Amino acid sequence: MDIVERLSDLRSHSGEILCVLAEREDDELTVEATRTLGLHLPPPDPRGYRHPSAHVKDGQVGLVLMVLTEDREQSPLHLYANDRGLVALGTADARRVVAEALSEPPGDTLTAVVEVVMAVARRCEEALDQIEDDSQELQAAATGYTSSPQRRTMGRLRAELFRIGETQAAQRNLLSLDEELAQTVGREHQRLIARAATAFGANHSMTTRLYAMLGDVLNEQDSVVSERLTLVATIFLPLTLVTGFFGMNFQWMVDGLGTLPAFLVLGLLFPAAMTVATLLLVRRLTRSA
Hints:
2 domains
């Protein structure tokens, strides 16, 4: 199987089986390749592809996988294959995965499809390893009170992990031995299909674990924020009480509290003593609880 990425190479190709790498369905290279190989491509979805899918019809295999890139983007990879060749459509990162998977050309197109599926699973695993390192760094930095930008970063990363986990689970389900794709490739390739499904399942488990870990960190941060707000409210509670009481301007208060010693005792020492007593009471109650 020869890998072709240019129209001139396709037109000069004389072999029987080839793999064509292109960017879009409407590329001139794609149109020429599908006509040469006898493939029938479905019309492109104007909304874009967000979910993996697979279909087998009239001896043609159609497969849409999501490749997880290093920048945490999920790039769709379209594979269309029959016994004459394979057409792979996607971004540069997605096409690179196909080229690396087929660096040692297999003897038939079904083997090539299975090898590409395995390569996508490995690429997703490598990207998730980097995400795990980033998550561990965020967890280590979240000691005590973290800043709002850090908490927002953890929130965005959790949202990305949720989407990635759903995609990995969908790709695992596509490769189930009961699905049409596994039944089409035959018994000799089902072992590799099962390995790829296991890899996607492990990726899904990793995303679930990281999602839960970041959720625990955010919950701890919410507890820290609540404790600090409670502490501030506790400090100002006796001060507010004293201020409200001495601001009532009773006549006996106006006549008897006009001296400096009275101001120092009742205006400064008494509120300070009430604040300390309140904090000690709260601390004791917290420990007993």
